[in-house]
């Protein structure tokens, strides 16, 4: 992306390294705090109406809200986030990874202010990290339930199906916008690659259709009886050199046909 290249040359020195590690550290800390002081957790969520009343820390703290799951599943979530976030940072560089998260963050916050009284989720932003990793490393294998190896592209496909289902059948328009906001950064970064893959897929489908068409088109057709090599694969065909054009005859008619002048 030429725009990203220009931005990186100008603002690259302000990039924050190890963002994923910092987020995980804060989430683990808050996960432990919620067991001793659960009353503090509502002060973390992003509720736009409270932000407009002066509680501006919510604009940052909601990103650090830990998963409300069993410790084993929370650990699995942090492990995957660390694995994929650090891989993206190593692949793209610190600045581009920062921009990827920033785009998802800004769009999510903007959508949240459309419903000032509701708490904005942060999980969708981290879901976009998963989608980006799956796009770049589709054959990476995860051990589902720590036992079953599954390529990550199939898990990403399930997530995309869930997103499309939500967009089509969600009970509220705000939920649809939240889902769209969560994939906005993915589309910004990968729209060109998506178009290239779609065009390549169209060319492959077109070539496959052409091969099927050629496979179903007879190579030889008898001028007299119309039998083809597809109807009778054992039939031998000949072309008469005395007939005008390239007329084909089966072995039953090659010797006794009338020459076409």
Describe the structure.
- This protein has 261 residues and is mainly alpha-helical.
- The chain has two domains: 2-203, Rhomboid-like fold (Up-down Bundle), CATH 1.20.1540; 218-261, no CATH class.
- The protein contains ten helices and four strands.
- The protein has helices at 2-11, 19-36, 48-52, 58-61, 71-92, 94-112, 123-136, 152-169, 173-182, 184-215; strands at 141-144, 148-151, 237-239, 248-250.
- The strands form two sheets. The chain has a two-stranded antiparallel sheet with strand order 1-2. A two-stranded antiparallel ribbon has the order 3-4.
- Helix 2 runs antiparallel to helix 5 (71-92), helix 5 (71-92) crosses helix 7 and helix 6 (94-112) packs antiparallel against helix 9.
- The longest helix has 32 residues, at 184-215.
- The protein is elongated.
- The model has no long low-confidence stretch (mean pLDDT 81).
Summarize the structure.
The protein is built from 10 helices and 4 strands, in the order αααααααββαααββ.
Largest beta-sheet characterization: 2 strands, antiparallel
Based on the coordinates given, report the CATH architecture of the largest domain: Up-down Bundle
Radius of gyration: 30 Å
Overall helicity? 55-70%
List the secondary-structure elements in sequence, H or E.
HHHHHHHEEHHHEE
Low-confidence stretches: none
């Amino acid at each position: 992306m030429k725009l990203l290249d220009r931005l990186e040359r100008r603002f690259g020195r302000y990039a924050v390294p190890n963002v994923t590690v910092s987020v995980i550290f804060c989430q683990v800390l808050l996960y432990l705090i919620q067991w001793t002081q659960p009353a503090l957790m509502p002060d973390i969520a992003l509720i736009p109406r409270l932000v407009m009343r002066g509680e501006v820390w919510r604009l940052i703290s909601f990103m650090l809200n830990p998963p409300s799951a069993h410790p084993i599943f929370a650990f699995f979530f942090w492990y995957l986030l660390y694995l994929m976030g650090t891989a993206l940072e190593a692949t793209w560089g610190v600045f581009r990874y920062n921009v990827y998260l920033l785009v998802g963050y800004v769009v999510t916050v903007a959508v949240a202010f459309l419903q000032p009284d509701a708490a904005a989720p942060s999980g969708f932003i981290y879901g976009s990290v998963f989608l980006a990793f799956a796009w770049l490393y589709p054959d990476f294998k995860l051990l589902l339930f720590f036992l079953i190896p599954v390529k990550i592209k199939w898990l990403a496909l399930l997530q995309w199906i869930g997103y499309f289902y939500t967009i089509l059948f969600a009970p509220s328009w705000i939920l649809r916008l939240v889902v769209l906001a969560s994939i906005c950064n993915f589309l910004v970064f990968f729209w060109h690659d998506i178009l290239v893959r779609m065009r390549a897929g169209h060319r492959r489908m077109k070539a496959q259709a052409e091969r099927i068409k050629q496979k179903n088109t007879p190579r030889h057709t008898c001028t007299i009886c119309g039998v083809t090599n597809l109807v009778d694969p054992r039939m031998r065909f000949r072309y008469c050199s005395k007939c005008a054009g390239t007329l084909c005859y089966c072995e039953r008619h090659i010797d006794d046909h009338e020459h076409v002048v």
